[in-house]
Automatic annotation (TrEMBL):
Residues engaged in binding GTP: 130-137, 194-198, 248-251
PANTHER family reported for this sequence: RIBOSOME-RELEASING FACTOR 2, MITOCHONDRIAL (PTHR43261:SF1), TRANSLATION ELONGATION FACTOR G-RELATED (PTHR43261)
Catalysed reaction equations from the record: GTP + H2O = GDP + phosphate + H(+)
Stored InterPro entries: EF-G-like_DII, EFG2, EFG_II, EFG_III, EFG_III/V, EFG_V, EFG_V-like, G_TR_CS
Residue ranges occupied by any Tr-type G domain in the UniProt entry: 121-408
Function: Mitochondrial GTPase that mediates the disassembly of ribosomes from messenger RNA at the termination of mitochondrial protein biosynthesis. Acts in collaboration with MRRF. GTP hydrolysis follows the ribosome disassembly and probably occurs on the ribosome large subunit. Not involved in the GTP-dependent ribosomal translocation step during translation elongation.
Record keywords: GTP-binding, Hydrolase, Mitochondrion, Nucleotide-binding, Protein biosynthesis
Protein name per UniProt: Ribosome-releasing factor 2, mitochondrial
Pfam families, per the entry: EF-G_D2, EFG_C, EFG_III, EFG_IV, GTP_EFTU
Organism for this UniProt entry: Patagioenas fasciata monilis
GO CC annotation: mitochondrial matrix
Chief site of localization: mitochondrion
Matching Gene3D superfamilies: 3.30.230.10, 3.30.70.240, Elongation Factor G (Translational Gtpase), domain 3 (3.30.70.870), P-loop containing nucleotide triphosphate hydrolases (3.40.50.300), Translation factors (2.40.30.10)
Amino acid sequence: MPAAFCYAITATHPEPGPHSRHKLRLGPAEALHLETADNAGPAERRPRGNSFRDRSRMLGIMKKFPINALKSSSFCSEYGYFRKTKMRVISVTQQNHNLRHFSSSQGDVKSLRSVINPHISRIRNIGIMAHIDAGKTTTTERMLYYSGYIRTLGDVDDGDTVTDFMVQERERGITIQSAAVTFDWKDYRINLIDTPGHVDFTVEVERCLRVLDGAVAVFDASAGVEAQTLTVWRQANKHQIPRICFLNKMDKNRASFTYAVESIEQKLKTKPLLLQLPIGEAKTFRGLVDVVTKEQIIWKPTSHLDDGKNFEQKPLLEADDPSLFQEVQDARNTLIEQVADLDDEFAELVLGEYSENFDLIPLDKLRSAIRRVTLAQKAVPVLCGSALKNKGVQPLLDAITMYLPAPNERSYEFLQWYKDDLCALAFKVLHDKSRGPLVFVRVYSGSLKPQSAVYNINKSCTERMSRLLLPFADQQIEIPSLMPGNIALTVGLKQSATGDTIVSSKASAAAAARRAGRDALGQKRSASDAESLLLAGVEVPDPVFFCTIEPPSMAKQQDLDNALSCLQREDPSLKVKLDPDTGQTILCGMGELHIEIIHDRIKREYGIETYLGPLQIAYRETILNAAQATDVLDKTVGDKRHCVTAELEVRPRLGERATTKPAIEYAASVIEVLPKELQEAIENGIMNSCIQGPLLGFPVQDIDVTVQSLTVHPDTSHTMVSACVSRCMQKALKKAGIQILEPLMNLEITVSEDHLSAALADLAQRRGSIREIQSRQDNRVVVAAVPLAETMGYSTVLRSLTSGSATFTLELASYQALNSQEQSALLQRRMGLV
Ligand SMILES: Nc1nc2c(ncn2[C@@H]2O[C@H](COP(=O)(O)OP(=O)(O)OP(=O)(O)O)[C@@H](O)[C@H]2O)c(=O)[nH]1
């Protein structure tokens, strides 16, 4: 299957707003180092027995219970003592940052008084992920505000949020790059990554997920689960990341808590744990009830400000609102049932001591049980609010600290190879004009210190790191060390790119490789499996669009090459190659928007005005039949004779589809006498010929290859073997008959009833096939399949057809064969005949 990705375009993009500018004021630089013996590991699990529901039914204990007047216990600091260390504050010089207000009084600016290396149990590495426009950036901005790191609330629509700092992000009101920010909330260090929702930047989400321990999935409460939510949810499943759901936009027209929860349950196939219920919906939304504590939280604007800082939290009494009171009571009983069903330790407690009265269950016991089931990914806590209207974000922050895991509660298989040696992962690169590349790293084991040499396993090189910085909101604070579980920025690493593994030395890498190798033998794992554990890289799907890119003059070619190589280090989904026939530079990307943004960044950040050729589709080639070919290469170079005879068979693959990696087999007579280096040379030859198919030069997919025979003269170099095999492959592929495949996209359009027929008529003209039309509140959701070639400029057309009211998402589904007419039309176009 192709790597899943999709893209979403809102047909109504907000216009760029005025950029508010503020001056940066910093408090005095001071840092404290935390040393604490606090260790909050998960309680040991007990073997599961019958379900709680079954057992409680047997015992007949499912009753309604009286009000629990317990107050929520505040999280008191468990810190031991603080020790002063040196720290330097550096204001961000990122070219595009608008500087923001920070509290100036000492004691107010938490970042400047923060501990540098909090105890690992107090760290939360969290991602915010969602469908485009669900409100990730707005929620992040509120978190920074309530935790005291910014003094004014930025707005996505005004283009002045902290995390969307690129000019393109601020102008378009979308997140393009993930942004990592650090802040403290109630004695916890939160490293938070705001990820893009637009599918062209899915790889950006994927690489962040590698370093996260938990995630907050944000939903638009009026839309529930949308297409890109499914994609990011699948990505989080793949990395086994515990999650919390935040139903945002509860203030919006048509917001529905019940609808959103149902869609989470049905579409994401997960068990939602309702930890809150909203008080009011849409226009009447004014607060929430904490189902765990049965307290109501009502936000109240002060006379001059409605920034959400002022809220009242008090027990919900029956007299306040009898029906809400009953709803909360039921919700709490259901929650207890659900958790007991999933957690034996809690079930025992509930069935024993508290079987007569659930209200007496201590809060900490219930919370610990919710935490255990969340960490085990058996269920997902659900909270709600409205980030834009400043409601619900503080309880969300509390939930992050309470229910999402600390780094030491996650298990990473590769850690065992490193023991206590340094193992860190570079997960993001930013280019800073004055300081060069800034590399974000997460430390898994050992510690990282500035002014030290480190070894990059992927690049097999030693590099020197000059400084370590913590990205507190949009300030960066220099720190003396980085401990396991934490995230920071490094200055000075010139070779390291996204996805690289960093260790202390070459010897330490070798020792880890030996341990991994030994283990691989023990567990019957292949050496390449062990290697992949050692190198925690990022999977990048193949691009679907490409175009030529030209500098304004030949003199600027070198500058353009440099700019592209910097951008590629930041963005592994950007591919750059040279057209072997024309010598032109080719830019390959994940979507129209992706290429547009790269073009814009080259102009703004590197000052090069480039010209893009027309956007083209990255088709694939495959074969129709099995075929055999033989090739002989006989060449004398200097005094050496290179002589190879190869015979190969190619066949269409029947099983697993959409892979450009051919399955290679050897005839028994060949494999018996094949040295490893020669095998590598043969496989290089086969792979190279699959990169550029014989018909139009597109990658060849879904083929099996058998090396039938191979004769090699003793003096022949391996390069000549590869060349002969490659030529033989090309012959075999041509004989087998080439079929062109085009990317087929899953398209989901959300449109009002009034504009439905216009959208459907347009779809019919685009070779689209409609699979389903669903209802989502007052809107219709059209699920269809459409060739990628027919989606160029679709956002503009849909916007005009629906007066800007529709939204759509596209996701690569598969590659489908072009019919013979379409294929010959494409051939003619590519040859310039039409
Ligand atoms: N009504 C309402 N609008 C909101 C809320 N939160 C965010 N918005 C608006 O929704 C739009 C998108 O918000 P963002 O915070 O940029 O959403 P995002 O998920 O970060 O978007 P991408 O990163 O581009 O995917 C903006 O116009 C926000 O003002 C909310 O709670 N209620």
